[in-house]
Structure formats: C-alpha cells, structure tokens
Amino acid sequence: MDQKPPASPEEPAETESLDQPLTVVEGQPDAASAVQETGVISAEGDIPQATRAAAKPPIHKRLLNRLLSFNIYLLLFIFILIVAALIVFFSYNYSRKQAGDSKVNTTSLSQDTLDQLANSDATVGASGQVLNVQSSAVFAGKVLARSDLEVAGNLQLGGSLNLPNITVNDTANLGQVTVSKNLAVTGNVAVQGLQTIAGSLQVGGTARFNGALSAPQISTNSLQLNGDLVLTRHITIGGGTPSRSNGTALGSGGTASVSGSDTAGFVSINTGGGPGAGCFITVTFTAKFNATPHVLVTPVGSAAGGLGYYVNRSTSSFSICSSNAAPANASFGFDYFVVG
C-alpha cells in the first residue's frame, strides 16, 4: 500500500487550495452594493460582511431622508392651497348665514287687531328714547311728524312737494320750480338758462344783464344807457297831453290847440283878423324838467314857412312866436320835439 509523502512546507494544504469554492451567506450584499450604499471602499478592496450589514440604515431612517429631500417651495405651495381652501369654506358658510339672517319674517294682523289700532293711538317708547329701524319701511297712508324732521341722506319725492316756507342755507339744485306766491331772494341770483316770467317782475335794486334782454314791453321810470341806443323800429311817444294858453299873435278870433305829450306833439294855429307879431301859443309841460330842455320846432304849411318864428323855453313850458305878422284867417301848424 502506497502512502503519500508528507506535504512539503512550500506547497499549501488541500484545505487552502483555490479550487475549493468559497462559502457565501445568502441575503448579504456584495462589495459593489456596499459601496453604493455607504460610498466607502476599504483599503483592501473588499468590505467585510459585518461592516456591510451595519452600514445599511434602517427603513424608517431611509423614508425620513427621502421626505426631507422634497423641495421646500413645494411644501409651502401646498400649505398656501390648504389655507386658501379654508378661507373660501368659512366665507361661503358665513355668507349663507347672513343671507338666512336677512330674511324678514312677516306676520299678518287679524281684523280684530286692525280695528283696535284704528280706534286708538299706539305709543312706542318715551320722548327721550330713540326708535331705530334697520330695515326699509313702507307707509301706505299719510305720515305726520309733529316735531322737526331730519333727513341724513338724500330725499327723493315721487310726487309734488308742498311747503308753506322753505329755507335753504346751502346750494340747492332744482329741476323745475313753480312759485305761486312771492319769491324773496336776499342774496345774488345766477340764472344760466332761459328765464320766463309770466307775471310782473319788480326789482327794488339794480338789475344787471350781461347778455341780451328781450321783452315785448319795458316800463321804467328812468332809463340810463352807457352805450349807443340802436332802434330798428319806430319811436312811439306817449304820456299826458300838456296844457296851453293862446297868445296875442293869433289876432281877433284866432285859436290854437296842442296834441301829443311833453316830449313830442303838434301845435295847430288858426289866425283871425289883424294878427300881429308875438307868440301864438304857450305849451305847459305836465311834468317839469330838471333843467331847461331843448325844443325843436318844425313849421308845417306854407303860411308857417314864411314866418320868422322862434321859441321861448323854460323848465315848465315853451312858446312858439313870430317876429313878423302871420297872414289873417290862415291855418298852419308846428311840430315840436323836446329833449331834456
């Protein structure tokens, strides 16, 4: 029986041969997986199994690391969406509650209650108390305020407004105003549009018009014009007829008459027998002038045209005279125009 010689010191034993397979423990990662998990490579190029098992973190820590790796702005955006949703939710519920509270519950009054109110007065509160009505109020009948009525807001009237007296301390904008009685204005009045006055207009002070004044008739005691007077129609002069007295130049049986006014008129002369030089007529004004007026006389007829006529004048009258004798039994006349 052959025996194998003992192994030399240079040769390794069979237990240390490279041909024998290594024992692998299932469930443990290899060196490459350990490097991916921990990111560390040992100096020998291999990681022991115990080290690899210890380097792998538990599952709850790995989940926490993944949650912390989310973007902080994404979390903030989600938080804002949640807050906005809550605000919308609470606002919607509050508006529904307010709409429910605003409903007015109406109560019908029986006929017996209405009869009791019709036959008696109902007093609410004392004189020192204030009744606040938050909602709108509609009165189908008349409303009587026995004391002052104060309106803090606008006053709108669908019908007419009847007031015995009205005092406006501030600006008032009125679309149309009808005054059946007197209208007294102590301050200035500015009228932008057309003003129509069906009755009389009496102005106690000065009236000033910056624009044109159109009137079918103007009656005034005194008219002062600072500019030119432009007339496009005839001048019709009225007034009382002045009185007259005959002069000696009419002759025996002669007559004279006057028609017109203090301003303008006509003097008719009928001579008699043996007229001579002198005055035919003296015209006395119905109202004296403040100063001696200007009298313009125009002869009418050939008999008057041959006379050497002249005028004597004063503040109360004027006379028509001739320096030569007029023809006997002749008829002629003079027009006159008097300006103060």
Task: Give a verbal description of the structure.
- The protein has 340 residues and is of the alpha+beta class.
- Among the domains are: 22-56, no CATH class; 243-339.
- It contains 6 helices and 8 strands; from the N terminus they run H-H-H-H-H-E-E-E-E-E-H-E-E-E.
- The strands form 2 sheets. It has a 4-stranded antiparallel sheet, with no helix packed on it. Strands 2-3-8-5 form a 4-stranded antiparallel sheet.
- Strand 2 and strand 3 (264-270) form a beta hairpin.
- The longest helix has 30 residues, at 72-101.
Which runs of at least 5 residues are low in confidence (pLDDT < 50)? 1-45
As a whole number of angstroms, the C-alpha radius of gyration is 63 Å
Helix content: 10-25%
The tally of helices reads: 6
What would you say about this model in short?
The protein is of the alpha+beta class. It contains 6 helices and 8 strands.
Brief descriptors of the model:
four-stranded antiparallel sheet, disordered N terminus, 8 strands, 20% helix, alpha+beta, 340 residues, 15% strand, 6 helices
Topology:
Layout: H1 31-38, H2 49-55, H3 59-68, H4 72-101, H5 111-118, E1 243-246, E2 255-260, E3 264-270, E4 278-284, E5 294-300, H6 302-305, E6 309-313, E7 317-322, E8 331-339
Antiparallel strand pairs: 1-4, 2-3, 3-8, 4-7, 5-8, 6-7
